[in-house]
Amino acid sequence: MARRDLRALFSTNDRQLEVGEAFTNRQGQWQIVQAALGEHLARVTAPDFDVEDLEAPRNNILAFHGVGGIGKSTLSRTLESALAGAEGRPARWGEAAWPARPALLPVRIDLARAAGTDFERVILTLRLALAARIGKPLPAFDIALRRYWEHQHPGEPLEDYLSSGGLAARFGRALPQQMQSALSDVAQALLLPGTVGTAIGQLTGALTTALRERRQTVRALARCVRLADLLDANPDIDALSYYPHLLAWELAQLPADRAVVPVVLLDTFEDTGTRTHRDLERLLQRLVWLMPGAFFIVTGRSRLQWAEAAVEGQLDYTGPAAWPGLAGQTIPGPRPATSPTAAPTPESRQVLIGDFSPEDCADYLDRRLVRNNRPLIDTGLRTVIAERSHGLPLYLDLAVLRYLELSRTGRTPTAADFDADFPALLTRTLADLTPDERHLLRAVTLLDAFDLPLATAAAGLPHLSAAARLVERPFVKHDAFALWPYHLHALIRSTLRTADDATDDRWTDTDWTRAADRALAALGAQWQAGSGPDRRLLTGCLRQGLALARDHRLELGWLTDAAWAYTDDYVWEPLPLPARDSGDDELTTAADALAELLSTLARRQHEHRATTVTRLTAVLDTGLLPDELADMATYYRAKAHRDLGHHDASRDGMRQVADRGGRLAPDAARGLAHLARAAGDFPTATATAHTLGWPGRGQRVLGDIHFAHGDMPQAAAHFTAARTEAEEHGNLGEQAIAQANLALVTAFTDPARADDEIALAGQLLAGLDQRATSLTAQTAAIARDAGTPTGPELASALRAAIHEAGITAAHTVLELALVFHHTVRGEHDDVQAAITRLHAHTETGDHSYYRDIAHCLADIPLPTPSTTLWLDGPEEVRARWHQLVQDRRTHLGITE
User: Fold this and answer.
1) How many CB atoms lie within 10 A of CB 701?
2) How far is CA 347 from CA 33, 121, 351, in A?
């Protein structure tokens, strides 16, 4: 469905170009209207429905709201046409779901300031529409309205007003004649002399008396029990706002074959006033309340607050008991492209009009500009425009106008022409906000998500009220389950951040920097005020804080402590930061370097360790990090070197960090112990392990040492102690590491217990991002199944994963598990193949003790003398490892 777009039509000389205002599918909203209207019709046609009941709750309203430019007015106009008849209904909407009787009378009223609509005009528009449809007087209402008009507009005939205001042209001239007929009939019934038209006061006075005396001559009007009181009241605008009760009563008197249900579409409702000046809104609310038989569809930028107790005193009828359908959270309108049948229940009366789906954007651009029945804008450019619109129809419309403007220069527009945002989006967004709300809106564009205190602190405001009002705006999205429940519409946010701001209260660069500094401080305060460890809060604050510090060149402050908290638990959630507005990825600030450091530590779980070394070296080479954070980069680079088998480079890095005595000195000492173990120097590794304690994870290091010696009871005891310490310190990552190692130990000794230990390791790893630990747990599963026919099924896939990660030590443990398996089964060739692979992985000399262990398991002599310095002699080590083979054979019932 389309109508001519004159603005676009007068932007080009191309007469072959068809320029239409494309209405893109809003089938989901149509389904909501059908459901709500069907329920309303069932209610008003029920035998017990009483139009004069002023106490019953009202469900005769449906409110659509959304950001400026989302398509509310277009939806309102289309609903008017659709309700008027099938020929005005988009084909995709299908047939109406309600009966033919009573008839519907759609009446659309634009409340925009530019339309000059006041309450008088609303009432007259509604009455004129009824005059054109019903064709007969409505005496109770018409007499009251005529009295009002004579008092408020002396000397101005209603006919002249209707003609000059365009209402007569829209609805015809039947109303003045119907009013005159009503007055004449009443005058005749009362036997009044003279010309009725010049004696309205006399007529209403006589009618009031007759009504109170219940004379038979006016028995029909006497059934309207409040008519006399309204005719007695001073005929001012306040009294006029109660006259809709008379209109509702008159409509209820119509015979069934002439019954009419008005469907009043009130568009641009945001222009009825502000949150503190609700004069017109109060009058319109009375209209809705006093006409329970009519159905009202409101479209505007903000949700209606009528069901909130806070507006009591500003409006007459408030609270959830009065408006049950308007209470509670706004429901999102369904997107027809993805869920065409997902209409909310009819009881939901506040509906957020969502963005266009990608399919709707494409459909809009296909039909907006057409030449020779083909879209004028080429397919590639339509795709670019649709993606950049984030589903906002106003953007699509502005993009079409930009296309026409650029085409006038004689060149074909390209994707680069649509890189910039449209300042008009900014103007439309800020149009109806208070100064505090405008100030706060700019501040929250700095944040990916926010809550009321965070937004208020970023704006530097002393109270939360502006934030509480702002989050009710439709361009603020709500997610009750998010860490911070509010975030701005993506396109609105990017426009406010990047478009040319020509408004009177625009911010300078200094204003933006100060707001960023306030926002960063507020994030730090939220993290520091947290009760106990909270990884979700920590990572959320880090993501937003790093982006703020990076983009606005701020000092690190609390981000340094947060970075240490992030690394302490070995959890490694990803920390993706949004791209810079400038698109420049060069590291130029300490925040740049810290962001890259933490990102590298998280991504190393998914990258080869050689990539980790390269990225950390680049960070260190900038010299931007303070010394304590440079230690962090140096330490984790040394760990990556160790995983790659570059033990000299690893040892240099670990010694450098240990010698500085900083926060990572105990970890670096543990690293040196691991390196000593890798070199086969177990006495040195053991001596160092006893000095580490919890900070250096000494129990875990001792477990690794005893595992290498085949002393599984001691290894299990140390890994259990390491897990217990981690639990006591609330360190989930360390718990997972200790548990995976414990699972590996029990996999060699007790397959039944290993099932439980491996399962627990999997539970602890869930939600963590620890690649090396996960590989250990998978290797434990292979060792647990050693000797069974399916034992090495996953070995090839695991070997590939280890190769991809670049963790040399994991290769050696996997091959050791395979030697164990093949030895138990007596598969000598496979044993030799696994030992050969072990030799390849340990040819540098590091972890060569695994070759010794493999020969111990297989009970075959070493080809060359061992260089390993065991704690209690090679023969005891050999005996322990080979006994594991014998025990597994016994367990499986395998005889040689």
Assistant:
1) 24
2) 11, 31, 11
Residue 183 CB contacts under 8 Å (≥ 6 apart), including other chains:
142, 143, 146, 196, 197, 200, 203
Q: What are phi and psi of 663, to 5 degrees?
A: -60, -30
- Confidence (pLDDT) at 212: 67
Give the closest residue to 288 by CA, choosing from 266, 271, 272: 266
Rounded to the nearest 5°, which phi and psi values hold at 61?
A: -145, 145
Of 276, 334, 277, 327, nearest to 303 (Cα)? 327
Answer whether 294's CB lies under 8 Å from 324's CB: no
pLDDT one-digit tens code per residue, 138-156: 888 888 888 888 888 888 8
Topology of the domain covering 697-892: 1.25.40
CB 663 within 8 A of CB 564: yes
For residue 93, is pLDDT > 90? no
CA trace torsion 29, 32, 38, 44 (10° rounding)? -100
pLDDT at residue 23, as a whole number = 55
Q: How far is CA 875 from CA 676, 861, 879, in A?
A: 21, 11, 6
| Burial 438-452, CB ≥16 within 10 A → b, else e | bbbbbbbbbbebbbb
Residue 847 Rama label (left phi>0; alpha psi -120 to 50; beta): left
Whole-prediction pTM: 0.61
Q: Is residue 423 classed exposed, middle or buried when 0-12, 13-18 and 19+ CB atoms within 10 A define those classes?
A: middle
Looking at residue 336, what is its pLDDT?
A: 39
Residues 6 or more apart from 7 whose CB is under 8 A from it? Answer: 401
CB 114 within 8 A of CB 206: no
Tokens, residue 186? 């009443």
Dihedral (C-alpha) 508, 510, 516, 521: value to the nearest 10 degrees?
Answer: -140
Domain boundaries, the chain: 2-24+356-419, 27-332, 435-507, 697-892
Helix (H) / strand (E) containing 358:
helix 358-368
- The tokens describing 619, both together, are 């960070």
Alpha carbons 872 and 877: distance in angstroms, whole number = 8
Closest CA to 598 of 569, 563, 570: 563
Q: CA geometry: angle at 728 spanning 484 and 658, to 5°?
A: 90
Helix 751-765 to helix 771-784 angle (10° resolution) is 160
Residue pLDDT, tens place only, 842-860: 888 788 999 999 999 999 9
Q: What is the 3-state secondary structure (H, E, C) of 576-639?
A: CCCCCCCCCCCCCCHHHHHHHHHHHHHHCCCCCHHHHHHHHHHHHHHCCCCHHHHHHHHHHHHH
Q: What is the pLDDT of residue 347?
A: 57
Q: What is the pLDDT of residue 335?
A: 40
Percentage of the chain exceeding pLDDT 90: 46
CB atoms within 10 A of CB 82: 20
